[in-house]
């Protein structure tokens, strides 16, 4: 399950505004604002979570599982070759 904080931070890492993010995920800007207003679990349908995860991963984000400090995100390392 993605958290509002992960989604907010992933969008920030990619430099995506809410308009662009909404276009890529088909999730309304109002819904994005509501999701990101909480650090906790993002209460999404399976379809919404899948669309959000796919868009962010295709953009270059990697989701980090719970590691004692909570789940997170980072940009995927690019192979220089």
From TrEMBL:
Residues 62-81 are annotated as: Disordered. It comes from the Bacteria. SUPFAM superfamilies: lambda repressor-like DNA-binding domains. GO terms for molecular function: DNA binding. This is Transcriptional regulator. It comes from Lichenibacterium minor.
